[in-house]
Specification:
This is Gamma-glutamylcyclotransferase. By secondary structure, the protein is mainly beta. Helices cover 10% and strands 44% of the residues. The strands form two sheets. Strands 1-3-2 form a three-stranded antiparallel beta sheet, with no helix packed on it. Strands 4-5 form a two-stranded antiparallel sheet.
Amino acid sequence: MRIIVYGSLRRKQGNSHWMTNAQWLGEHELEGYQIYDLGHYPAAIPGEGTVHCEVYRINSSILAELDELKSNTKDYKRELIQTPYGSAWIYLYKHKVDGFPRIESGDWLKRLDEK
């Protein structure tokens, strides 16, 4: 199975250690989504825009660990979407993003350049 990540799980980010045993497949520009800066982590939601992502091949134990990580916040839901590497799971934000800055570049790593 595959997972697509857009924030702190990406390479060289704060939670990238969760992806240590995952196989990096490549980058992807995910169209039809927007990304917002919630402070320490991002929120991706469906919308007009493009989000810069990374796609990984993972096993069921990595998915279970990521589900646990994301369920601790109760802020995300996991959905299956299509990528050039095949279908992949993505964690989408469940709440309103009113008041949070949108990352216009679509790239979590470039968010500080936009401030």
